[in-house]
Amino acid sequence: MKTIMIHEMPNHIGETVRIGAWLANKRSSGKIAFLQLRDGSGFVQGVVVKEVVGEDVFAKAKAIHQESSLYITAEVTVDERSSFGVELQVKDVEVIKEAVDYPITPKEHGTEFLMDHRHLWLRSRKQHAIMKVRDEIIRATYEFFHTNGFVKIDPPILTGSSPEGTSELFHTKYFDEDAYLSQSGQLYMEAAAMALGKVFSFGPTFRAEKSKTRRHLIEFWMIEPEMAFVEHAESLEVQEQFVAHLVQSVLKNCPLELERLGRDISKLEKIKAPFPRITYDEAIKFLHEEGFDDIVWGDDFGAPHETAIAEKYDMPVFITHYPIGIKPFYMQPHPERDDVVLCADLIAPEGYGEIIGGSERIYDYELMKQRINEHNLDESAYEWYLDLSKYGAVPHSGFGLGLERTVAWISGAEHVRESIPFPRLLNRLYP
Ligand code: 4AD
Ligand code: MG
Questions:
Q1: Reduced to 3 states, what is the DSSP secondary structure of residue 133?
Q2: Under CATH, domain 118-418 is a member of which superfamily?
Q3: Gap between the Cα atoms of 259 and 271, Å rounded
Q4: 329 C-beta closer than 6 A to ligand 1
Q5: Which of the ligands is closest to the CA of residue 354?
Q6: N- to C-terminal Cα distance for the chain?
Q7: How far is the centre of ligand 2, averaged over its atoms, from the C-alpha of 270 (Å)?
Q8: Is the pTM of this model over 0.95?
């Protein structure tokens, strides 16, 4: 007999098959038991009828505890109401290991309890669906960049430089030297773009941020494309096409997951390029009109500001041309203004905040050197980086998309802690 997985069952209607599964939940009466089974690839209902399987198997099925591991032998039948359109008519049940007193029951649990049991919480339907959406976004990312002629490059994780400022660095020893965990691979990606033209990275990044919000993780994954001979405006076009591709891929390939998550897909269906653009100046003016008196030109936006701006649109929105004083050293100044830079943040709809930060990069050697010094960075750690503007420098642009914020937005998860398998948060390194 064939051992198959739940997602393959539509191809086995009418056959008797065997699956390895866990018991997610169970309902039973005197004559019939309904086993909610999961095997990682999906969920399916197994129907155990006492008259069919006999007293012994029925008694065994009724006694199984939640999350026990099983082999189930059953006939696959059609059930239009279920997710894969199938149901199992159980013939035999073999218990591999009983799970007694599984801590996560179908009743409601508090967040801290669930976070303490993240290693088990991942098994639940909602978390399973979010991980599938995350996987689809990862797949679609490689698809997008490889289709568009980008080369995947892996920047180092242990570094001596800090592209995004020094206040949030994870410090570590590197034998006798000081090192940091990478907060962004950007500077290395710039070097790679000068070698390979269009490149992208996809890896973990670390920020010792003291922020405890629904958008901040200490360890998160970032996708960082970098493009030689590409200026600010063209970079925004790549960004909107990339993000639209992610959303459309999830809609196409994760319909069951989005349904299980209760995601309003009509909101996602609208996400197509181009996205609206407003300047920082316009955003400040708009916020003042909306009654935000707490912000003045030169300040960075907080979550309430970003949300208010995002609410004007049913698309992600680019905020462009931020003041030079609140952005990193490497951003190219505006050609006609010395107070703003050629950059943009992409703000997701529905309050999910900034999902992309990007800019055109300085490629003038003297200016780059000056900016490194103005930011009080140790020039010796950036000597290699200065070489890029010394030897055949060209206009170039790049950006970084935060994977977890994007997963949270597309799947509708309230908090980024649910969009990564094992979140690292302020005060949480367990499990
Ligand atoms: O805006 P950021 O800091 O930009 C950079 O790091 C650039 N060097 C990227 C580049 O141009 N190559 O971070 C980029 C994105 C943010 O828009 C956000 O989506 C995500 O990374 N991000 C975080 N996600 C979760 N938790 C945090 N603490 C995050 N910090 C940034
Ligand atoms: Mg940013």
A1: helix
A2: Bira Bifunctional Protein; Domain 2 (3.30.930.10)
A3: 18
A4: no
A5: 1
A6: 39
A7: 25
A8: yes
